[in-house]
Amino acid sequence: MHRATTMLSAKVLADPRSRQTREALPTLELGTRLEQICNLEAMAQVAQWDKSFKPDRVIAYAMASTKVKSGIITAPGAAMRSGGNWYNLAFNCGISPETQEVQSFEFTVGKPIPREEWADHALAPVY
Question: Concatenated DSSP letters for 70-112?
Fold first, then answer.
């Protein structure tokens, strides 16, 4: 797994282009909100790690359920959309429920998910 040394989701959320996301997050149930912040962290970390990826969506529970234990959201079966394709993704996201800030993050990008599996996992094609 690639371990992040700098957390990026707070910077992404502070960007003026993220206004709608900033406004929507407080309306979500806490667990969903924390998972969405981890999804933002995943997109930012992958984009920084490999410039050929341009993630525009992450679904933490696409291929397997997430687990939460001791402030760590583990997503062994996440999926990431980039360039019109979905890729397997796994991540561990340490996030504080109190501050709602990512404190640690590690990830692995896997192989592309075959298009014939997208519908089974509710992976939307690019519109």
Answer: TTEEEEEEEEEEETTEEEEEEEEEEE-TTT--EEEEEEEEEEE
What ranges do the domains of the chain cover? 2-121
Pairing of strands 85-95, 72-82: antiparallel
pLDDT in tens, 82-102: 999 999 999 999 999 888 999
Could you tell me if 110 and 103 are in contact, meaning their C-beta atoms sit under 8 angstroms apart?
A: no
Q: Which residue type is seen at 60?
A: A
This prediction has a pTM of: 0.94
Smallest CA-to-CA distance from 44 within 32, 55, 33 is with: 55
Domain 2-121: give its CATH architecture.
Roll (3.10)
d(CA 77, CA 48): 21
**79 within 8 A of 62, measured Cβ to Cβ:** yes
Instruction: Please say if the pLDDT value at position 81 is more than 90.
Output: yes
Task: Sort strands 102-112 and 2-3 into parallel, antiparallel or unpaired.
Answer: antiparallel
Task: Please say whether the beta carbons of 81 and 127 come within 8 A.
Answer: no
- Looking at residue 81, its amino acid is R
